[in-house]
Write a structure and sequence with these properties.
alpha+beta, Arc Repressor Mutant, subunit A, 2 domains, five-stranded antiparallel beta sheet, two-stranded antiparallel sheet, 11 helices, globular
């Protein structure tokens, strides 16, 4: 009698199994923040999650690509999956910059997803994604997530709590001389930390990675320029949308493909 392969216990184990099988598929992750993981030949080539800015947000909010240029290329009917490549072809974005941005967004999304436990997942057929040449073995994502979590708080739970904090300027932040000694990057983050925004909100506002923003917030805390929010602002809702991204529909149908894999669907 053939023994059944045990179900993956978590997302890293699932991605490791897909890597071993060199599968091409899409993993739909449910929960908060949830997201979509794109796998090609066992390598993770993209992630979309409301927990961290994606490639489009990073390029547009940072003004590395003008919104009118992005909209103009989209208006030509360019396949959304190839939109960023078309920007490169038109000389609006460097190929190396696209690749670096895509890989940075991928690692940042993996970090955001690693801070919480998913409610479940479903393995489906491959779906279109914004092509950036990013392709990472799952084991490398695990190693990098571990490094980032330890660098911020030395444990996942503490880092996850930090990611939900809504820090606000401390009285010391009113000292113009102290603020003037900060780097422009730190001054921008200090201005954005108003007691209502989480690190995730600040990342979306500034068009920067979640992890990079959290590092800057940690620095500002250590300098005494930020503090936990006061009682009057602690209960305010986040200022950024938390609607999970809608997975790209298959071109032949408005509903997702059914799973095409022996790997099981798991629900808590």
């Amino acid at each position: 009698m053939t023994e059944e392969t045990p179900a993956p216990r978590n997302i890293p184990a699932l991605l490791s199994a897909l890597h071993t099988e060199k599968r091409s598929c899409t993993v739909l992750v449910s929960g908060t923040p949830g997201g979509v993981i794109h796998v090609r030949d066992g390598l993770v080539v993209g992630m979309e999650t409301p927990g961290a800015p994606g490639v489009e947000v990073l390029l547009l909010k940072s003004r590395r690509v003008a919104e009118e240029d992005w909209a103009a290329v989209r208006a030509t009917g360019t396949d959304p999956a190839r939109l960023a490549r078309e920007l490169v072809a038109q000389g609006l974005l460097g190929a190396t910059e696209l690749e670096i941005t895509g890989q940075a967004a991928l690692f940042d999304a993996a970090f955001a997803l690693a801070l919480t436990s998913p409610d479940g997942w479903e393995v489906t057929a491959p779906r279109p994604l914004l092509e950036t040449e990013a392709a990472v073995p799952p084991a490398r994502l695990v190693t990098e997530n571990t490094r980032r979590i330890r660098l911020l708080a030395n444990e996942r739970g503490a880092t996850a709590r930090f990611a939900r904090d809504r820090l606000e300027p401390a009285p010391e932040a009113r000292d113009p001389q102290r603020v003037a000694r900060l780097s422009p990057r730190h001054r921008t983050v200090l201005t954005a930390a108003d007691g209502r925004r989480t690190p995730r909100d600040i990342a979306f506002t500034l068009g920067r990675g979640l992890f990079a923003v959290m590092l800057d917030l940690r620095d500002l805390l250590a300098l005494g320029l930020l503090q936990p929010p006061s009682a009057t602002t602690a209960g305010r809702p986040s200022t950024a949308l938390r609607t999970p991204p809608h997975p790209h529909p298959h071109p032949d149908t408005a509903t997702p493909h059914p799973p095409t894999t022996p790997l099981p669907r798991r629900k808590r």
